[in-house]
């Protein structure tokens, strides 16, 4: 009995010592990020000097060149590019739209959804059918929908505390609305912007066409304009809506994932990824989506190097290309990892904005999640309280097929969809301190993953 108690006491002392050492290391990580952080100035350059960077654009290539240069300047062990063939959709001249009630025309702000076809040079004008759901649309049938513009006007649910849950409950309209409308003979589709904010900024995003269905033009309309159109329809159901957009899809373009690496000192064949997506929508500087995630990921490796932390495992910061309208970068990264027989034990993605850190969502087995739970007391002092089952991230998602445990960085969600996919997603909307706290939070998790594995 005495030997057993002695052993338990020894194990307890050893655990407490390890916890104390980890606590000290994490405190140093936060001190470094908050005192000497580089992420904010990197974000300033990415948004103001590079700017919008939709896949296939000159801005996207400029972002590739610049992030590669930044990581090389930090002296990472290896910086390299991975070829990715990406979609190349261009918006063309600014869209035009108005509500015509028979007496007057009222201009309203719209923006073509990514991947949409153009209207043609004369635009499209037709009567409007307002619906809140696909079942409601189908119930109306082709007799009422044919030749009309379908107006999808289901708002994000304001009662959802997690705004990503609200977004998920509404975004099918944007993704599939044009296809569902075209099945019934509609000539166009207009979709309420994905935000709870009432403003005049169209929130764009990707859409997709179904096979064997006519390709009809589709655009996002600002929430204020959506409310106006809905109200106008109650007053005059015979009004018409006009819109003109000039977008087109060009042949796929060559682009790249940008990868920076610090080689592991003990288990170099085990890889831990931290990343964000380098592309943004063409209307946006892409500060929160996802410039923040990119600069935070580079900052994670910079912090490790600056503090003299020699990771046991290989750490990689990956700037994924084409998350917004194709996910080609994430798929290509996972394919190359499989082809090269690389072992990725964990991947962390930041693609929810540069707001105050709240925690991490984990995609893995119950056993894998259980290994993370003892770390909660180490992360709690920094406000990282929401740690458990949840989403990982779109770009790292393909790695899950190889057994990689995925972690999605979770900042506060309340303001994200104020800016998401709009022209106001600018550098000025990002708090330096919140951004740096996020980078430190990610670095702390990477440190623990490197120390203990999964």
Automatic annotation (TrEMBL):
Domain of life: Bacteria
Keywords linked to the UniProt accession: Carboxypeptidase, Endoplasmic reticulum, Glycoprotein, Golgi apparatus, Hydrolase, Lysosome, Metal-binding, Metalloprotease, Protease, Secreted, Signal, Zinc, Zymogen
Subcellular location, record wording: Endoplasmic reticulum; Golgi apparatus; Lysosome; Secreted
Residue stretches making up the Peptidase M28 domain: 257-439
Signal peptide interval: 1-18
Biological process per Gene Ontology, one example term: proteolysis
A single cellular component GO annotation: extracellular region
One term of GO molecular function: metallodipeptidase activity
Subunit-structure text: Homodimer. The monomeric form is inactive while the homodimer is active.
Protein name stated in the entry: Carboxypeptidase Q
Protein's organism: Spirosoma endophyticum
Source taxonomy: Bacteria, Pseudomonadati, Bacteroidota, Cytophagia, Cytophagales
